[in-house]
Design a protein that fits this description.
This protein has a two-stranded antiparallel ribbon. It is mostly helical. The mean pLDDT is 93. Helices cover 69% and strands 2% of the residues.
Amino acid sequence: DEAFYAQVSREILQNNDWIKLTWGGGAWSDKPPLALWGTAVSYSIFGVNEFSARLVSAVSGIAIVGVLYLFGSSLFSRRAGIAASCFFMGTYHVLWSSKSGMLDMPLTLWTLLAFFFYYSAEEDRKYSFWISISFSMAFLTKGVAALIIPASIGVCVLSTRRWRIVGNRYC
């Protein structure tokens, strides 16, 4: 899949068409365009190469480490935030996904951000707006797979009976 995403991103620049995605000259609609747009931007800055093709996943993996630290620190303690970040960085799948030009790391980043903002919305309802933005970015990254976000938040709301988030004007 990495080669498909890299080629589609290359054709975005080649055709200068950021809306109609193509692969091998034919229409391509397997995945939403957000990560592919990011790779195309990376190509335009650093050239069409392996580094550029994998940059979006690598930056997403690094960002996840930071968000995990913030999330763990706000949920438990600074030590828990560091532990969560270290455990995340130490798993084989994370290392492999972060260095390949796949959509897993960007999707994980947007999903984690949505849950972090859901947790933060308990303290300040204005964070609810960012839940919607994170879900939208996840949906633009991998489509239907992003539906895990509203489903999980819905289960949390139903099980904790914290209805404040439902009908929040910031969502």
